[in-house]
Recover the amino acids of this structure.
């Protein structure tokens, strides 16, 4: 039995989808435990590219794919994603399981997300606009609707009428938004169709997942977003509204912490961020532009250009601590192929000149102190043998591993499944 959690160690977009897909070849189930369709996991194999927002990447290998109680689901987008997967021949109904306790992202959540960002103007968070924050607010405020609520149609209709009334009032009075007037009747009939499609997949997922554990199966927990978008430990308020850390894999799926056997941290060989918020190693020069173009750094969900910068060892060291990371998968190393010199932030200098080597509570007014290393200046895309990697790349990896205090177990040299070096593949499973 193994329960392996996969988490992003930076601000998301580290390449988790590819690594989850790769490790799924030996997994019996893949579980998403937080977030919603703000995530965008890109998986490439053969000559096909899949971008999954909600459905766990395990579905591509027809492995049991579970949406745990901790996720928030926009059924409109979710059913569309399922239909697209079915068109490629995947039997989604057979392999997908959805928690009856997962919360729904309702149409008003998306409207409120958008209007709130508009109101904030320059101080906006830069959300994905998918209604994630308002949906988690309603969950915590005990005003949300859960997947299981759909099963009792009469009760659902009554709750919907009550909530729609309330939300329409809020939208009119607080946001002065006339366009946003929702009809309970329309939503009810739309959701009745979704229920028809999803009903066979709705189950008690904590029971199912614990049964997998008891049967000695291998389970992968697929984190969404990244460590520094965590609502408690991230760069608040520029964060998402869920706990993205490995600890939440337990709460968001309904298993106990004693079951977890490993935590694999996914780390990009440099740093990127989408949306607003502090980013100490951000580059505004040609090096930043080169990272963006070579790394094709545009959001998988919103298409927004990602901000790019050098590797930040303080950030990833903190992620290793917060998540209890047991090893690292380093992705997108080939994006650095053209650089003469590579920089790694090893400390921050505060405005009073003091230097700190540990991640501080606030990233405002800190500037990075860099360690410089020579680049490898040759094409490494697609190399699959460790011995063929240039010595400068191995030195870069060794330095990262030493600075963040975690061993490297996976090296990714390209976007495709097969463009990967897994050191000691048996370490993840017993
Ligand atoms: P929200 O999750 O849509 O509320 O957005 C909050 C912040 O998290 C914004 O800065 C988003 O750009 C960022 N964010 C949310 N999901 C992802 C993701 O999957 N990758 C990278 N950034 C994300």
């Amino acid at each position: 039995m193994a329960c392996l959690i996969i988490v992003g160690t930076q601000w998301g977009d580290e390449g988790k989808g590819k690594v989850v897909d790769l490790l799924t070849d030996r997994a019996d189930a893949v579980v998403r435990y937080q977030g919603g369709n703000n995530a965008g996991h890109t998986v490439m194999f053969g000559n096909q590219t899949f971008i999954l927002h909600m459905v766990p990447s395990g579905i591509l290998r027809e492995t049991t794919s579970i949406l745990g109680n901790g996720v928030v689901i926009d059924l409109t987008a979710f059913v569309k994603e399922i239909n697209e997967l079915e068109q490629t021949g995947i039997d989604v109904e057979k392999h997908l399981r959805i928690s009856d306790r997962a919360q729904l992202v309702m149409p008003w959540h998306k409207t409120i997300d958008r209007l709130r960002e508009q109101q904030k103007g320059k101080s906006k968070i830069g959300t994905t606009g998918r209604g994630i924050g308002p949906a988690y607010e309603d969950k915590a405020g005990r005003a949300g609707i859960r997947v299981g609520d759909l099963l009792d149609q009469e009760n659902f209709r009554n709750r919907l009428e009550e909530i729609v009334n309330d939300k329409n009032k809020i939208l009119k009075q607080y946001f002065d938004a006339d366009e946003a007037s929702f009809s309970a009747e329309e939503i009810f009939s739309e959701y009745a169709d979704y229920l028809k499609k999803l009903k066979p997949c709705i189950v008690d997922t904590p029971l199912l997942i614990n049964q997998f554990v008891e049967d000695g199966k291998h389970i992968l927990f697929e984190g969404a977003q990244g460590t520094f978008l965590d609502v408690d430990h991230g760069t608040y308020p520029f964060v998402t509204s869920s706990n993205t850390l490995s600890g939440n894999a337990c709460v968001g799926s309904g298993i106990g912490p004693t079951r977890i056997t490993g935590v694999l941290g996914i780390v990009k060989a440099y740093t990127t961020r989408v949306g607003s918020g502090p980013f100490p190693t951000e580059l505004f020069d040609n090096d930043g532009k080169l990272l963006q173009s070579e790394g094709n750094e545009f959001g998988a969900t919103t298409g927004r250009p990602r901000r790019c910068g050098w590797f930040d060892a303080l950030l990833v060291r903190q992620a290793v601590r917060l998540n209890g990371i047991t090893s690292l998968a380093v992705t997108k190393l080939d994006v650095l192929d053209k650089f003469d010199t590579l920089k790694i932030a090893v400390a921050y200098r505060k405005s009073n000149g003091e230097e700190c080597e540990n991640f501080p509570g606030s990233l405002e007014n800190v500037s990075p102190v860099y360690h410089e290393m020579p680049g490898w200046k040759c094409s490494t895309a697609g190399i699959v043998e460790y011995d063929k990697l240039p010595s400068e790349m191995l030195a870069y990896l060794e330095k990262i591993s030493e600075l963040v205090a975690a061993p490297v177990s996976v090296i990714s040299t390209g976007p495709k499944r097969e463009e990967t070096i897994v050191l000691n593949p048996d370490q993840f499973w017993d």
Residues 11-13, 38-40, 125-128, 130, 132-133, 224-225, 229, 238, 240-241, 274-275 surround inosinic acid (CB under 6 Å). The mean pLDDT is 94. The two ends are 7 Å apart (CA to CA). DSSP finds twelve helices and 20 strands in the chain.
